[in-house]
Amino acid sequence: MSGSHLAQFNVATLRFPLDDPRLAEFVARLDPVNAAADGAPGFVWRLTEEGRPDATGLRPLGDDVIINFSVWEDREALWDFAYRSGHLELLRRRREWFQRHAEAHSVLWWIPAGHVPTVEEAAERLALLRAEGPRPGRSPSTPPTPPKRPPRRNVHASPGPGPPASQRRSLSPDSPDGPEGRRAARTGRSPVRG
Question: Cα 121 from chain centroid?
Answer without folding.
Answer: 17
